[in-house]
Design goal:
The chain has about 100 residues and is α+β, with helices and mostly antiparallel strands. The chain is built from 2 helices and 4 strands. It has a single domain, classed as Nuclear Transport Factor 2, Chain: A (Roll).
Length: about 100
């Protein structure tokens, strides 16, 4: 799998589905975007970094929310050619 294919994979499935499921249920509308993709690989290892931006509308009795984060992933190619995430680090842009 090429770096371009890895990028398409993550854009298609969205890697933050589980992390943001609670927020998505709490608000009427939840929008997330992934940007500034950087992908580098050599052999059976690849590093992927990107920025995450999200926002949600204010549901009834709730405040609108927004945020951002940086993500780092280390991917490894298995013997069958599939890529798997070995390390995922997520750092919020929000203070403390």
């Amino acid at each position: 799998m090429t770096c371009r294919a890895i990028r398409r994979l993550f854009e298609a499935i969205g890697v933050f589905v589980v992390l943001f499921a609670g927020l998505a249920l709490a608000y009427n509308q939840f929008i997330m975007s992934l940007s500034n993709w950087r992908i580098d690989g050599n052999g059976d290892l690849a590093v992927v970094t990107n920025d995450v931006h999200w926002q949600s509308d204010a549901g009834e009795g709730k405040e609108a929310a927004a945020g951002g984060a940086k993500q780092f992933m280390l991917l490894a190619r298995q013997g069958d050619g599939k890529w798997v995430r070995k390390i995922v680090i997520y750092n919020s842009d929000q203070p403390g």
